[in-house]
Design goal:
By secondary structure, the chain is of the alpha+beta class. The protein contains 3 helices and 7 strands. It is elongated.
Length: about 160
Amino acid sequence: MKRNQGFTLVELIIVIVILGILAVTAAPRFLNLSGDARASTLNAIKGSLESASALVYGKAIIAGVQNQGTATVTDPAGDIATVFGYPAATPAAIAIILDLGEDDWTVVEVADAEPATIAITPGSTAYTATEEQACQVLYTQSTEAQAKPTITVQTAGC
């Protein structure tokens, strides 16, 4: 009688383990999971900026300074410089409203930007607003009364 021989259970398990090891080491090279994570985090920062600036604007309304070009709103975390009621585009104001960790985020003023603009980048790499390969959130302060600040997310370099 002829016996059909196949693979043993041990051989199949060894092959599956080897394929699993290859998949774990090769998959991150083909999938840009870290870039997607950075882009999602930047979108979360944008949402936080929108919410925080709305809260600051509410405090400015209560203080009656929402139509002033420059003013200060008092917060338990510190005094927040405002422009037409919204947070000014300064690292100090952004640091108070977002409380970003200095080790994880870089908050810098964009040179020669008119109106004033802040770039928030993950890590210690600071970009400028004109770089096409940037991974950052740009916060441009309000330019007139009752005009919201502009918040832009650039994810091309993430």
